[in-house]
Write a structure and sequence with these properties.
With 159 residues, the protein is an all-alpha fold. Helix content is 75%, strand content 0%. It contains 8 helices and no strands. The chain is globular.
């Protein structure tokens, strides 16, 4: 790799790795699989990425690739044989409520996880999520609504 390519990769990794890792973990529930997915995403960035118009285009592409890799993982037989890794949920610095919320998000249907994460943790707008995930804005709104309803029902003890 050239110096320019190294800088491109390092900048992208520094800026997006944590966010992409969290997305992968929300989908897989596995620290190891999340790390593997993150590695695959950045390998694809190095060897098979399109020309990006701007930083938002690159970020959207990385999120989409991460989500697709997670879908591939979930479809694979390995996903059915791995138990949920609770290590990330046992962080003592977080409240019990935050741990419960993370746990419920992890157990949600995969189509809700990414929209919840992008909306609440990354402060994306519905329009931005729509663009990144290639969904209509109404589909994003509906997924957010249904995910909130699921969380509200699951976390009624905290009401």
């Amino acid at each position: 790799m050239t110096n320019e390519e190294n800088e491109f990769f390092a900048q992208a990794y520094d800026e997006y790795a944590q966010m992409l890792y969290r997305i992968a973990y929300l989908h897989t529930g596995s620290l190891q699989e999340s790390e593997d997915i993150l590695q695959e995403v950045f390998i694809k960035l190095i060897y098979n990425s399109p020309h990006f118009k701007n930083e938002e285009h690159k970020k959207a592409w990385l999120i989409r690739v991460t989500t697709n890799k997670c879908k591939d993982y979930i479809k694979s037989s390995r996903a059915n044989n791995l138990p949920l890794n609770e290590n990330i949920l046992s962080n003592k610095s977080e409240s019990d409520k935050a741990i419960d919320i993370q746990s419920k998000i992890i157990s949600m249907d995969e189509k809700y996880k990414t929209v919840i994460y992008l909306f609440y943790y990354e402060d994306y707008t519905v329009k931005q999520i729509s663009s990144v995930l290639r969904l209509s804005e109404s589909a994003v709104k509906m997924r957010l609504k249904r995910a909130r309803e699921i969380l509200k029902k699951e976390l009624k003890n905290y009401a």
